[in-house]
Amino acid sequence: MKKQKKSSVLLIYTGGTIGMMQDVVTSELKPFDFKTLTQQVPELKKFDIELSSIAFAKPIDSSNMHPLVWIELAKIIKDNYSKYDGFVILHGSDTMSFTASALSFMLENLNKPVILTGSQLPIGIIRTDGKENLITAIEIAGSQVKGKPVVNEVCIYFEYKLYRGNRTFKYNSSHFDAFKSPNYPALAEAGVNIQYNKSALLKPTTKALKVHTHMDNDIAVLKLFPGISKKITSAIINTPGIKAIILETFGAGNTTTQEWFANELKKAIAKGIVILNITQCLEGKVIQGMYETSSHLKKMGVIGGADMTFESAITKLMFLLGQKLNNTQLKKQLLIDLRGELTE
Ligand code: ASP
């Protein structure tokens, strides 16, 4: 029988707790030299997967993440796409869902796994969650059936669960189980075996990978609360230069029906600003027109963001604005499920 070729995985280290060590003097967590990772995780040498790695010259805490770094990551994947069967990105958990969402849009027609992982405790600490996260993420990134990858999308693997990246958000800063994907089921669960939820995975495509490297962050966010003033609302809506606003609304996409509020939104729409309505609820979706308190939004041309997470909504907007689409095309794309990020 023909021996199956070993699969190859590229590990990209951006920073985050997983690669940090405690400073002996100040007790602060600081990034350590990535070259010592195999000393920390000797199990990596035993893998039946060819492992290569790239480390950021200056690893970052993911709170310093920026669209320019996403572009850098997308380019690394583009340059190495044909050389590897899968990719694992080591990343801080704080903004991991933003990066996973952004990459899902930037990597069109992805036909290989891109798995982001990290940890809540540094890998050098005995009780670290980093080892299991890293080892299983690599295993998933290298998983193939009949020479084809099992996973063809950007995911987050954390604490025994594989999620679609653009469906996640970080909900817990102290538990190992740090991510949730309330509106889409886990893609896999790691127990004794890794059980894939095959029907939930994105289907492979025959189209060639297209990497988008323009992200436009001229976006304002207006999070509603009872009693929000006209002064604040108007200051946000009239921020010079913005092209889009994310409206974080109540329940199924509802807002106050006060006239001044509707007028501010209408003025923005008249100026060509795109307004996307997403809900502050973590589960469920925006249905404009379900209540009187959202019908006015639909009538004036606010776009309903369905069940998109905030992370997905903001990165999808950055991606679409980066495409320099006209407003009609942009609004159409916002409503469409591009990478499994929303339920139409
Ligand atoms: N602050 C860290 C980061 O996001 C936390 C973590 O790694 O989980 O980079």
* Head-to-tail CA distance between termini: 46 Å
Ranges with pLDDT <50 over ≥5 residues? Answer: none
Return the structural class: alpha/beta
Question: Main β-sheet: number of strands, strand sense, barrel status?
Answer: 8 strands, mixed
What series of H and E elements makes up the topology? EEEHEHEHEEHEEEEEEEEEEHEHEHEHH
**Integer count of domains:** 2
The CATH superfamily of the largest domain is L-asparaginase, N-terminal domain
Global morphology: globular
* Nearest-integer average pLDDT: 93
Please state how the strands of the largest beta sheet are arranged side by side.
4-1-5-7-10-11-14-15
User: What level of helicity do the residues show?
Assistant: 25-40%
Radius of gyration equals 21 Å
Number of strands: 20
Strand content: 15-25%
CATH level 1 name of the largest domain: Alpha Beta
CATH topology call of the largest domain: Rossmann fold
Instruction: Report the CATH architecture of the largest domain.
Output: 3-Layer(aba) Sandwich
Distinct ligand kinds: aspartic acid
What is the overall number of helices? 9
What does this structure look like?
The chain has 344 residues and is an alpha/beta fold. The protein folds into two domains: 205 residues, Rossmann fold; 117 residues, Rossmann fold (3-Layer(aba) Sandwich), CATH 3.40.50.40. 27% of the residues lie in helices and 22% in strands. The protein contains nine helices and 20 strands. The strands form six sheets. The chain has an eight-stranded mixed sheet, sandwiched between helices. Strands 17-18-19-20 form a four-stranded parallel sheet, with helices on both faces. A two-stranded antiparallel ribbon has the order 2-3. Helix 2 crosses helix 3, helix 3 runs parallel beside helix 8 and helix 5 runs parallel beside helix 6. The longest helix has 14 residues. The chain is globular, with a radius of gyration of 21 Å. The model has no long low-confidence stretch (mean pLDDT 93). The protein binds aspartic acid (ASP). Aspartic acid binds next to loops.
